[in-house]
Fold each of these.
Amino acid sequence: MTYQDEIARAAKPIDAQQGRWDGIDAESVARMRLQNRFRTGLDIAKYTAGIMRRDMAAYDADPAAYTQSLGCWHGFIAQQKMIAIKKHFGSTKRRYLYLSGWMVAALRSDFGPLPDQSMHEKTSVPALIEELYTFLKQADARELGMMFRDLDAARDAGNAVEAARIQNAIDNYETHVVPIIADIDAGFGNAEATYLLAKKMIEAGACALQIENQVSDEKQCGHQDGKVTVPHEDFLAKVRACRYAFMELGVDDGIIVTRTDSLGAGLTKQIAYSKEPGDLGDQYNAFLDCEEVTDLSGVNGDVVINRGGKLMKPKRLPSNLFQFREGTGADRCVLDCITSLQHGADLLWIETEKPHIEQIASMVDRIREVVPNAKLVYNNSPSFNWTLNFRQQVFDAWSEAGRDVSAYDRAKLMSVDYDGTPLAEEADEKIRTFQKDAAARAGIFHHLITLPTYHTAALSTDNLAKEYFGEMGMLGYVKGVQRQEIRQGIACVKHQNMSGSDIGDDHKEYFAGEAALKAGGVHNTMNQFAA
C-alpha cells in the first residue's frame, strides 16, 4: 500500500466514530503503522524466508549472485551493520545476519562466558533473535521518522516537488529487516527438544535454522578437537523436527541448513542401527576403525559387528566412544550432505579446518553428482589464520610451478617482514576474491563470518583504552572515535536520535498536541551535530 492508501485506511475507523476520535490523526496512525510493518516474529520469518528462496533461485541461475552475512551478538551491532549497508550500498539485497551459537555462549549466557559446547541456556538463542529484530525494526522507525519530518518541512515550505519526491521514497522504502541464519547447535537434546527450540526461534523471526550432526551432550566448537558425530537416522530425526516446526507455524518455505562436522570429527558415540547391508546404518558403520575377531573369549563386554561375513570389533576408547578410520572424513562429509539433502535439508554447511577452495570443491563436486543443485553456507571463520593460510597456498603454488621461493620461509610467512612482498600481495588478492571464487567453483551460496563483531569490539576497545588512558587523554576519544563518526557520517554520533528520542517526541506530539514536552528543542546538545 502507498502512503496515501495507508492514510485513507486509517481514516475509515476514525470517521466511523462520528467525532469521538477526532483527536486521532489518520496520517499519524499511518506513520506509526509504516514504522511497525512487522507485527510479529512470524511475519518476519515468512517475509525473510521468501527473500532467501528467491536468492537461492538467483544463485542457481548465476553463482555471482551469492549472499553474505556477519555474525552479530547484540541488537545494536546488527542494527548498525544494516544501517551501514544501506548507507554505503543503497540496498540490503543479498546481505543477511548470522546468529552464532559461539557468541551466544561467550557473550549472552547468564552463566557468564562459556565455551561453545551447548552449555548456555537454550532460551537465550530465541531471545537474541527477537532482540536483533527489535533493533532492526527500530532502525526502520527511526529512518522513516526522519523522512516524515522532511516531508512536513517540504510541505511547510510549499515545495510540492520535494514533497512528492519524499513521498515516493516512503512508498518504496526498503526495510532493514533481513534474513537471519540462526545456529541451533546440535538441537540441545533429543528431537523433541530440537522441535520445541526450533518453534521458539521461528516465532522470534528466524527463517533459517542451522543444525549440526554432533552429539548434543558432547557438542564442541567446529574448530576444536574432540567432536563426536551421530548416526544419520538420529540426525535426520532432528532435521524433520525442524521442518515440522516450520510447517506447524505456517512458514512452509523455511530453510534448514545441515552442518556436517565429519571432516574434523573422528569419533562416534553409537553404532548405527542397520537392517540390511548397504543401508544408511551400515554405511555409517563401514567407516568405523575395526579389527577382526578370531577369538570370542577376548571380547568380553565389547561390541562386535558383521562386516562382509567377518566378525569385527570397533575400536573403542576409554571414553566409551568409537573411533572412525583415519582419512575417512571427506567421504563421511559427502555421505552426510547427500543424505541431508535427500531428507529435507535446503542448504549444506561443511566445517573445514582451512579456507581452501579446491578442498571444498572436491567434496561439492561429488555431492552434485547426486544432487545437482546442492549449495553451501560456508563459515569464513576467524578461527582460520587467513593471512598465513593464503600465503602458504601461494608459496606452495609457486613451488609447484618452479618459481623461486628462496626468499621466503614457509613456516614464518605470517611475519610482518613479508608484508608488501609479491607473495603477500598475491595472497591478499586471493583473500579478496575468495568469496566470489568459491561461489563460482565450490557451490557456496552464502558466505558468513561467524564472530567478526566479537573481534571488532575487542579491537576498537583496545585502541580506545590505549589512547584515552594514555597521553592522548580525551583527544584519544575525540580524534579516534567522535571525529571519525562525524567525518564518516556514522548514524549513532547522534546517539539520542539513535536511541529513539525523536520517535518519542513524535509520539508525544501525536498524543498531547501542542502540550507535548519534547526533548528535541533548541537546548538539545545533539543539535551541535547538525552541521
Note: The chain has a mean pLDDT of 93.
Amino acid sequence: MTETRRMELPSMHTDNAHQREALAFIDTTRPVGRIDDDVYGHFLESAFFGNIEGGVFDEGSPRAVSEPGLLSGVRRDVLDLVRDLAPGPIRWPGGNFTSGYRWEEGIGPRDDRPTRLDLAWGDTESNRFGTDEFLAWTEAAGAEPYLVHSCRDVDEAVRWVEYTNSRHDTTLTRNRRTNGREEPWKVRYWGIGNEVYGPWQMGHRSADEYALAAREHARFMRLVDGDLKLIGVGIPWDQENWTRAALEQAGKYFDYLSLHLYGATTELWAGDDYENIVAQSLYFEQGMNTYSHLITSLSDEIGLPKPPQIALDEWTMRHLEPAAWDEPQRGDDGGVAPRETPEVDGWPNALRVNRYAPRTVGDALFSAGVLHAIHRTVGHDTAVTMANPVNLVNANGIVVARPGGAFGSALYHVWHLYGRQLGRTVLHAEVDGPSRSASVPLGDNRVPSGGLQTASMTVPFIDVSATRAEDGTVRIAVINRHRDEAIRFRPVFDGRTDRTPPAARIHRIGADIAVTDSNSLSAPDAVSTRDLGQVDAIDGGWLMPPHSVTVLTMDLHGR
C-alpha cells in the first residue's frame, strides 16, 4: 500500500534539481495512542552540582525569596523559568543521593536540621531544602512531585507517606501542620529504590532481594494511601533476570518500572562529534522498545492483569572528558570556567563526565529525537508514559543558574516547544527520505580498550512525530539531523497529495546557528525558538534547514 502511494505522487519542482526530499505518509484515520503529559517530566538531585543549592535554592541571593515561609531562599528567576515550561512530574531527591537520604532530617526548623556527609557524590548535605520545601516549590511551579525512597527501611517509607499524604490526626501529620502545611500534599508518584542493582548504591541488592524488599515497601505504603503510583527499579542490562524477579514478587504493585539510559560524546577532547550525538536517539529507541516488549511478555507469562509502564526517569547526553584534566568548575556566564585542557593523544586512560559543559544545538536535536522515540511507544502495551531527563537545573541541565542570573539552555526550548506546540494524539507516520549508514555509539557503554561500544545503524536525516491537538489541527515535529544540507519535507495525508494545506504555522529551533552553539547569561537566546508565522508550502512541502527542529501546525479541515 505504501509503495502504491509513493508511485502515484507527482514530482516536486524545486529551484535546486539536486534538492533532496523526505516524504512523510501520515494516517489521520489511525491514531496510535496518546502521549502522556508525564513524558515532559524532570529530575532534581540533592547535593549534585548545583541542582538544589545554588540552583533551585540559594539563600542570601538577591534573586531569592526573602519572605518567611516554605519558599524562603528559592530563586525567583529559576522558578519562573520552570513554571513557564508547564513541567510534568519532577523527581527528587535523586538519583544516587536517594540511597543514603533520611527524609526526617530535612523537616522542621532549618537551623535545627543536621548537616551530613553525602556518600553518593562526596559532598555535604545541609538538609535546608527538604520535603516541605520541595513540595511547596513543585506546587508553585505547577508540577507534580515524584518522591523516591531508598527501599532500605519499610517503616521510614511508610512514615514519609503518612507525613505527606495522611489526613489522620497523628504525630507526623501534626508535625506537617507545624512545619507550614495544613492539608496533605497528596504526592502520587513514589519510587521504590534507585539503581539498587548497582554496587555504587548504599543498599545494593540482588534481583531477588530487591523484589522482596520492594513488595513489602509497596504493600505497606499503599496501606497508608491506596492511590499511590509506584515506580519499581528496572534495569538497562541483564534485563530478563532482574525484571522477572521484580514482576513475580512485586509486579502487582508496580505502575511503572524505571529505565535509565545515557548517551555519550567525546567532543570535549576529540573534537566535533555532532553526527554521533544526534544519532544516539536511535540507540535510545532500541533500548526502550526492547524493554517494553520484555516487560509485556513477562507480565503476560506471570499472569499480571496488565503490565507496568516504563518511566525513563534518568536520561541525558553525557559530555565526557579526560580525568587527567583539571576538575571543571562552573563558569560565571553559564558554562565551564577557563582552565588548561591539553591535547590528548589517543583514548584517555580514564574519563569523567563534565557536569558544567553547556548544552548545544546537537544536544537539542538528540533530545528531540528521544522524545520522538518516546511518542512512538504509545501504541505498545508497555509504553514510556513518564520521562525525567537529568537535570532540570544546572549540571548539564535544562535551566542554568548562576549568581548573576538564570537562563534556559538549548534543551529548554525543546521542552517548551514540544510541551506547548505538539498535540497529544499520536498519528501513524512513515518517512521515506535520505539517510546515512553509521557506527553509532551505544550510549556510555565502553569496550575493554576504553572506547565506546558502537553498532552499525541506518540514521535517517529526517525524523517525524505527527500528532493531533485538541483543537483538531495536525502538529508535526520534524528534525533535520543533516549538519549542513536543507531537505524538503512533504507530508502526504491518508494517501492523498491534495490534502496538504497551502500553508502551515511554523516554530523552529536551530538552522541559522552552529551545531556547537549554546546559550549563556551574556547570550541567553543564541539557541531559541522562532515563530515564523504562516509559511506557504511550495509544491506541497516545506524546506527543513540543516540541524533544526521544526513544528508545523496545519488545519486539514479546509482541504
Note: Residues 1-17 have pLDDT under 50 and may be disordered.
